[in-house]
Amino acid sequence: MALEKIPNIELNNGTSIPAFGLGTWKSLPNQVSQAVKDAIDLGYRHFDCAFVYENENEVGAAIKEKIEEGVVSREDLFIVSKLWNTFHRPDLVEPAIRKSLENFGLEYLDAYLIHFPMAAQEGDALHPTNDDGILIASDVDYLDTYKEMEKLVDKGLTKSIGVSNFNKAQIERILENCTIPPVINQVECHPYLSQEKLIEYCKSKNIAITAYSPFASPDSPFRKPGGTFMPKFFFYSISNRLAR
Q: Was domain 8-124+138-217 assigned CATH 1.20.1280.260?
């Protein structure tokens, strides 16, 4: 049974995003492709992805199959991916999106977001840590990263750019120093973390909010000792330092 028609939300650059989308975080290997195909058949057109989820190729294979079947066209879909922390250095930004596009088998993304407002040590490890298991930060300023993201729009590699997990102060720095305002700020948002003040601020700047973990994600690695994602206390300490 197909979903009712999902309404679109107009973004500040004139593009539109379906209000309801399928997230691909924590999708099990060899299962996300079928989930994406089923979602397309049901009426989903918005898919939220990221390089660090390590399943862009499976998502891309499902999209390719549904396009070849004539179920959808590329233009029907809104595909989001995110720049991971280890690729914040300006010279790594364009190669990172090109790698994601290669994974998906696509020529462009509909939106490309900075995943977190902090940089991690550049290199092959997605989660570089020291001997104590603490994430090793890089001193790259997210403002320099965002300025490089703007060039991706000019090159046609993505239609829109935005941010994820950014607070008010960090967004204000971008708006004060950059040319293209973010179309989206993607943040954790649910009844236990309502984000009312941040939502009101973004609304005042015509920046859409995408809510992730809308059911509070009780199995989130943020809540598990020894999880593969960075501890929240470390993320917030770094992001607050960069905001000043």
A: no
